[in-house]
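Lab channel / #folding
Pinned by the channel admin:
"Please post every new chain as: sequence first, then the structure tokens as a reply. Keep commentary short and put observations after the output so the thread stays searchable."

First post following the new format, from NK:
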Amino acid sequence: MSSSLTEIVLPHRPPDVPCPAVVTDGDRHSLFVALEVVDDPRDPRGRRYPLVSILAAAVCAVLAGACTFAAVTDWVRFQDQAVWARLGFTGRVPASTTVWRLLIRLDAEVLSQVLARWLRARAAPVVVAGRRWRLVIAVDGKVARGARLADGRQVHLLSAYDTSTGIVLAQVQITAKSNEIPAFTPLFRLVAAVLGSLKDVLVVADALHAQTGHAELLAAGGGHLMVAVKGNQPKLFAQLKALPWAEVPVGVQTRETGHGRKETRTVKALTVKTPGGLGFPRAEQAVRITRTRTIKGKTTREAAYLTISLPADQAQPDDLGTWARSEWHIENRLHYVRDVTLREDAHQARTHNGPAIFATLRNTAIGYHHIDGATNIAEATRRANHRPHDLIDAVTTGKPAVTRNNPTMQ
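Reply from TO:
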């Protein structure tokens, strides 16, 4: 990266506001600087408000809890002129239709990459404990139930979630008459662009992604796949279920009690050395995780079967149990928060890239609060809403997040 000095200039700076300080490339944690690379789709002759200012305002508004395009505009409109000036507006702010018409025309995948890189640059270094630690990425899709496209279809988005930081590394929209399977390849091309490569990354996914192409794609990039196996792969499922699990010693067993429930999880793993091995490319180990739950005196037992492309010396049973549970993070810590706290399913965005753009803003807000140490996203958004100047200070400086241990580390 170049070592030349760059001046961060907020557009439309009032004449009585002093010029900002000159910063080096090492200080490029400012949201304004990060957003400069986003292409403006408007005709240059009709640009009244800078794209960087509108985007920064939208990010700040969603960080403060705004759930719709109208709420984004209201958040800006209700601030004082000092906040307007700091965002790059002088005298007036854009109308809701102006914000909406601009944002829905942006490239959602590009914006997702830009904001993911910005969050990663701000995240505190993860404290690595143990030689087997890996970056674990959970993959899952979500339907924005309130959003509809012009043909009436619901919007379906597939995301890649960094379980160590809470940052969504990439997100793609499922095309018409398709599903998550073809979207996996473009999704991980975007992930590779954000991370630099897929080397040593472990991807955890549900049974839908037990696909030969997925395993080969990740292997070609130096990554690994841990995937559940169910009825969509009947031969592989039958092979895994028929393995001599009764003869396999327990690798690790955990017990948890809470919310009126008792749960025991037993992990067993083995390497199949028979000719042909497992009937799935790159698979090194077969895994069975048995869950026994007791709720109000009623006990249920279920077994889940998985494969992983890491050999036993790199993936012990305690690792496997932790990694398997990390798949739930994208559902519990991202999708649930988007629905309940940021009311995604109630948002009836339906034009162009509007649903995907706003999902990206929600992902950014959740990731930002996670790396800032928040455990309650709803509380964090309320705090940000009551302290707009503190919020702008935080997103325009290189203030580091709180260093913490990674809960998925071994």
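NK: The first strand starts at residue 6 and ends at 7.
TO: also worth noting, Residues 6-113+351-395 form one domain.
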